[in-house]
Design goal:
Number of strands: 17
Structural class: mainly beta
Order of helices and strands: EEEEEEEEEEEEEEEEEH
Distance between the termini: 48 Å
Largest sheet: 6 strands, antiparallel, barrel
Strand order of the largest sheet: 1-2-3-8-7-6
Number of helices: 1
Helix content: under 10%
């Protein structure tokens, strides 16, 4: 399958590059500007933590993108760099078939963390205001929320999680389960599945979870 059959102009993608053979992959964010050939994409210069990442002609990268059935990726090569009056563009050529990323199992940590969430209103193409809640547990695949809001299965939310003193993680989630909360001061336990999550964001969350696990173990709470 060629990229022209599955990638849309204006779609956000993740560009994964490996700077050194012994270094960790870096995941950058970009957007598709054009599909000039069946196996080529014209994308904006990738960004990492708000800074542009310069790619060299001939450099090999991996492109990640999302669909309802999961996350997909393919290998690509940088074949040209272009510049307009407003933006730098990178032209990449598909060099491998498109693969589906296999789902992983995630360690679930029981921990009470404050988070902010808000409902996504698809009909109005907007979101409500943020509501404070707490996690009962969290993993790289989802979390259980403690809240007084009567959410419904199938609703989508945006959630903001603090994973450091100055580091926030914004993720989308799908409500998959709602049950009455039998303990504590909250009315509901809400099961949330993370959706359309870039692997770089998932890895940041997983690193934070294991940092919290080590901290709790060191103090005898686990």
């Amino acid at each position: 399958m060629l990229v022209k059959e599955v990638i849309n102009i204006g779609e956000k993608i993740e560009v994964v590059l490996q700077e050194r053979t012994d270094g960790d992959p870096k995941a950058c964010f970009s957007m598709v500007q054009d599909v000039p050939q069946d196996d080529e994409l014209l994308i904006t210069m990738p960004m990492l933590r708000g800074e542009p990442v310069v790619l060299s002609i001939g450099q090999r990268v991996k492109i990640n993108f999302f669909r309802e059935r999961g996350q997909f990726y393919f290998e690509a090569e940088v074949i040209d760099r272009q510049r307009t009056e407003t933006v730098h563009l990178i032209r990449v050529k598909q060099t491998s078939p498109i693969h589906r990323l296999q789902r992983r199992s995630f360690y679930r940590l029981k921990i009470k963390l404050p988070i902010l969430f808000r409902l996504i209103d698809e009909n109005e193409s907007g979101s409500s205001g943020y509501i404070k809640a707490y996690t009962a547990d969290i993993s790289g695949g989802g979390m259980k929320l403690l809240t007084n809001e009567n959410l419904q299965p199938g609703q989508q939310i945006e959630c903001r999680i603090s994973i450091g003193e100055e580091d926030l993680l914004d993720l989308n989630g799908l409500v998959v389960r709602v049950v009455p909360c039998v303990e504590g001061n909250h009315k509901f336990e809400v099961g949330i599945k993370f959706v359309n999550i870039f692997e770089s964001d998932r890895d940041r969350l997983i690193r934070f979870i294991f940092q919290q696990q080590r901290w709790l173990k060191a103090r005898g709470f686990l």
